[in-house]
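Shipment paperwork, digital attachment
Item: protein structure file
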Amino acid sequence: KLAEAQVAALKGLVALLKQGGGAATPVTAQHVALFSGGDGGAGLLAWPAKCLFPALDLLRLLLLLPAAAPHVQAVQPPLLPRLASLLGPAADKPTTLMVLRCFANALHCAQLRPVAAAAASASAIMDTLAVPIESGATGVRLAACSVLVNLAFALSDVGSAAAAAGAPAAGDADALAQQALSVCAHALSVGAMVTQPAEEEALYRVLVALQALLGVGPSMREMAREMDLAVTLKALPLPPAAAQKITDCHAKLLGTLGA
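Attachment content:
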């Protein structure tokens, strides 16, 4: 049960989100604490799974607001790994879909992206992607692949910024890169991704994610070759009716890896 102050904060947040949000939206720490908890409470994320959907639907919208970023960053324990913990074997489809959309939005928001791409959050997020990519329904698989492509661009931005500044890569950069490449490789091994027309957009997002990762630099491309991704791509049985954007992206990847 929510306290009166929490009810007031929740009503205020709903009103803000109905206005469409924006850079100047006055998000407060109290709004974020509705989900993460505080003052002795565990927050909406501690509610039973059957009650989580509305809370996660609001949270995914909140994570798009630039003003939410500093408050999300300040949450302890970190919010995004906590969201990842909701995706255990017993997670239902609505919860899985909403959590994945939360991840995608956090990685899309420029102000929140560095938090989402940091090692602890990024690794926890990637740990959740294999199951929905392998066996999720079409919408869930697409959501997982959307997270993957947003994360790939986030990691690419981090790598490019470090290279431009002449700074050494962070100590966890190689581990995150390898984990991201592994998720891409796993996705390309899922037969439904290639053989079912309904999964075409999901496949495209995996290919774009891989392209973004390979663009980081020679070390990433070498890592991909060592993981036999060139062989995997060359053997990928694209159907004759595959969309032009898929065949074009596939061809560019083969060229990048010299396959």
